[in-house]
């Protein structure tokens, strides 16, 4: 049992403990909280990005398939709405990647997140020569180490629960595999995070911070079409399904999205194309192209035009935790309050049994185990 005095003591201690747990991430990002708003093509434009940064998180502009002039315009527009740090997400296979990096340099962007495959050493160098910090994705410990060797300043590990293009391994397993062993650079955990208690768990495993996408789609400041937001609000975790490849000759990069008529049609199309190739009516390359092109422009149609039937409704499993439209500041405040209260409960428990509640020294060193544990254009 805790008394009121120990509750107050544990609240202050919980805040101090949280600040200590994510100090490395906050220092790296230059923010009040180590919560990154994961870049979401079409959704993460100036309004959402600046709102996240203004609320103490770290907004990231999604470049997606934008040409350099549009990206320059979006960065300038974001700078007009916030004086706080924010990043830019570039897709590694964008045909004008070098020019996009040059735009980031000209605009004085502080952090570039490279998604959609492993960046080359030359790409990392070009970004760093322009003065920005580089963040890369690492789906395994080995690839994370390679990215660090090539010069990445921080990593994002993203589990299969996430929305958009996904890997095969869950966030919890990736976190346990990578966080205890990769301590050279800050590592941010993404995929399936919708509450502050989960943030604490990953921080305690050694994460520097977290990256959250789905939870921000229905922010008041998000320009996503009202129909897009409505399906998010109604959906449950099981509606956010990974796309399925039905024939290894026709590879499909898995994308997690809410099931709709479009995703059903995608399965039918794969079957039709495969049958036509098998009958010799089209070549394998023609078939591959038809499958690849199916989703072209589909995310834009859903997010901007509100076509929720045939557009791509990219969403993570944490969509089940999205229950209403909320201002970004409220979402971040809720996450921080949940993180603090989970720490306070624990500290309160310690105080009640006579243990000290003061936080210990900040240590980015060895891991302390706690009790818990690319956009279609
Ligand atoms: C609609 C949508 C679009 C996305 N587009 C991108 C993108 O363009 N680039 C990228 O690196 N990640 C993209 N992502 C992934 C997010 O940045 C983030 O890592 C992911 O949403 C985290 O998992 P969560 O959705 O469970 O929070 C997208 C996610 C969603 C839901």
Walkthrough of the structure:
This protein is an alpha/beta fold. It has 2 domains: 4-223 and 323-352, Aldolase class I (TIM Barrel), CATH 3.20.20; 226-320, no CATH class. Helix content is 44%, strand content 12%. It has helices at 4-21, 23-29, 46-54, 68-81, 97-106, 121-129, 141-150, 171-178, 196-205, 214-217, 226-234, 261-278, 284-293, 298-303, 328-352; strands at 35-37, 58-62, 86-91, 111-115, 133-137, 154-158, 164-165, 187-190, 209-212, 240-242, 255-258. The strands form 2 sheets. An 8-stranded parallel barrel has the order 1-2-3-4-5-6-8-9, surrounded by 8 helices. Strand 2, helix 4 and strand 3 form a beta-alpha-beta unit. It binds flavin mononucleotide (FMN). Flavin mononucleotide binds at residues 38-41, 43, 62, 64, 89, 115, 158, 161-164, 190-193, 211-215, 314-316, 318, 374-375. InterPro entries: Aldolase_TIM, NMO. It holds the Pfam family NMO. Keywords: Flavoprotein, FMN, Oxidoreductase. Its EC number is 1.3.1.9. This is Enoyl-[acyl-carrier protein] reductase II.
Low-confidence stretches: 1-6, 358-377
Distance between the termini: 55 Å
The main sheet comes to:
8 strands, parallel, barrel
The CATH class of the largest domain is: Alpha Beta
Strand coverage percent: 5-15%
Number of alpha- plus pi-helical segments: 15
The CATH topology of the largest domain is: TIM Barrel
Kindly name the structural category. alpha/beta
Measured as a percent range, the helix fraction is 40-55%
Mean pLDDT: 91
How many domain units?
A: 2
Ligand inventory: flavin mononucleotide
Protein name: Enoyl-[acyl-carrier protein] reductase II
Keywords: Flavoprotein, FMN, Oxidoreductase
EC number: 1.3.1.9
Organism: Azospirillum rugosum
């Amino acid at each position: 049992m805790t008394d009121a005095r120990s509750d107050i003591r544990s609240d202050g201690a919980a805040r101090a403990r949280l600040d200590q747990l994510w100090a490395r991430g906050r220092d790296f990002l230059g923010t009040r909280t180590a919560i990154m708003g994961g870049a979401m093509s079409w959704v993460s434009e100036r309004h959402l990005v600046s709102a996240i940064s203004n609320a103490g998180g770290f907004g990231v502009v999604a470049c997606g398939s934008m040409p350099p002039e549009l990206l320059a315009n979006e960065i300038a527009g974001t700078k007009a709405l916030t004086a706080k740090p924010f990043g830019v997400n570039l897709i590694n296979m964008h045909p004008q990647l070098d020019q996009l990096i040059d735009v980031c340099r000209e605009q004085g962007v502080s952090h570039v997140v490279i998604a959609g495959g492993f960046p080359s050493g030359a790409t990392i160098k070009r970004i760093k020569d322009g003065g920005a910090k580089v963040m890369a994705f690492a789906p395994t410990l080995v690839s994370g180490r390679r990215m660090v060797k090539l010069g990445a300043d921080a990593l994002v590990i993203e589990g299969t629960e996430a929305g958009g293009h996904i890997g095969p391994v869950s966030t919890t397993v990736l976190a346990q595999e990578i966080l205890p062993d990769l301590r050279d650079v800050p590592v941010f955990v993404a995929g399936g995070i919708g509450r502050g208690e989960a943030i604490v768990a990953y921080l305690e495993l050694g994460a520097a911070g977290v990256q959250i996408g789905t939870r921000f789609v229905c922010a008041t400041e998000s320009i996503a079409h009202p129909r897009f937001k409505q399906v998010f609000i109604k959906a449950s975790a099981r509606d956010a399904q990974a796309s399925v490849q039905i024939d290894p000759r026709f590879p499909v990069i898995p994308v997690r999205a809410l099931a709709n008529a479009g995703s059903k049609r995608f399965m039918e199309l794969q079957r039709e194309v495969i049958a036509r190739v098998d009958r010799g009516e089209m070549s394998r390359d023609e078939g591959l192209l038809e499958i690849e092109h199916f989703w072209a422009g589909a995310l834009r149609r859903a997010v901007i035009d509100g076509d929720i039937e045939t557009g791509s409704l990219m969403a993570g499993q944490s969509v089940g935790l999205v229950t209403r439209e909320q201002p970004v500041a409220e979402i971040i405040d809720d996450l921080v309050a949940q993180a603090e209260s989970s720490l306070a409960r624990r500290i309160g428990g310690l105080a009640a049994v006579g243990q000290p509640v003061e936080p210990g020294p900040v240590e980015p060193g060895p891991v302390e185990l706690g009790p818990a544990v690319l956009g279609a254009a």
